[in-house]
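As the next step, I selected for study a record pairing a protein sequence with its backbone structure tokens, which the following lines show:
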Amino acid sequence: MFRKILIANRGEIALRVIRACREMGIRSVAVHSTSDADAMHVRMADEAICIGPPPAADSYLSIPSIISACEIAGAEAIHPGYGFLSENPKFVRIVEDHALTFIGPSSEHIGMMGDKITAKETMRGLGVPCVPGSEGGVADAEAARRIAGEIGYPVIVKATAGGGGRGMKLARSAGEIEMAFQTARAEAKAAFGNPEVYIEKYLSRPRHIEIQVFGDGRGGAVHLGERDCSLQRRHQKVLEEAPSPALDTETRARIGGICAEAVARLGYAGAGTIEFLYEDGEFYFIEMNTRLQVEHPVTEAVYGVDLVREQIRVAAGLPLSFTQADLVPQGHAIEVRLNAERLPSFTPCPGMVKTFHAPGGLGVRMDSALYGGYVIPPYYDSLIAKLIVHGRDRDEALARLSRALGELIIDGVDSTLPLFHALLEEPDILHGDYTIHWLERFLAQRLH
């Protein structure tokens, strides 16, 4: 087992990894920019090293700085958290070249799944159901028109190297396809440095269902059920729950088995998430995230496992500590993402947190790096807290969420807390009857 792990991240996810290390008797090393010198992850780690100025490109995304911090601290392994360098195959190769262990999958698997076209082709070959679409990238507008006509409108044009909703354009008819193609290419080149796009069938009322998988790197793998992440704004998840209100036990076992088998055949090591659109009883693969997800706590609550601990164990060469038969879901869990943003515009709202009071009680978990007097910097993602609740069933989880939201105090900066109070008054949310388009329509009607 590792003696010391460096955490190449910040905020609540860095704290999450520090906690797992502490329970395992492993020393933790935090890295931080100058603007994060007073951050909670810096205070909680066993050691802390400054790696640069506030811009992420000069600190949390600086590979030389992170490798140097490892050498200074004598860390043997790096946990990337999520975001930043967590899905950068170049970073993984450099880590390995320095005789360090990357706590995550191989650079080969990260690169394979980081390219949307390669990922889709790979998954199709492994028996994972995929959205009807182009075979590879689309060369020009004429090809886009022909392929879209074969698929049938509406279609969506997507950046091959895309993510976060960038480089995605909808074409509802033949008259819109050329503009969608050209705009998506331009956005893709600007955002990712790669203009290549592909085309898929656009589903009108899908849910976003993702399957948590875990591979041992030796051809063994399990799944830990699904998370429903359909409540989204601009393709960014806002609320996640497990299990999905839309799936039954048989469907869950079927798609979970398909995903676990695919991961096993890949020889994948560590945590991963296979994401689908789900409509009319059918699953359509959209991407695989080769890292820990922001919403991993809902799976931990339902299955009673520590996914970060398991990541560390597998990276250290140990076998999985559970089998598929051990993984029996219990109850229902919901996570809401709280951002330092001003409603209704969702404008980032950095500044000093005057008062922070986390809710507590049975079935309530708060993952946050906030504290009274902390100054939220303007340089990074606006996510400031994740509130996770667990109950014996969905109704109890919703009741606990309502109670916990009422106890939560974040004073001094605006946050998205009022949004969740409003959502819990909506019958569709209470009944679990929503799709990936529901929240955008709700916001258009109620908050603007």
User: Anything to note?
Assistant: The first strand starts at residue 4 and ends at 7. The chain has a mean pLDDT of 95.
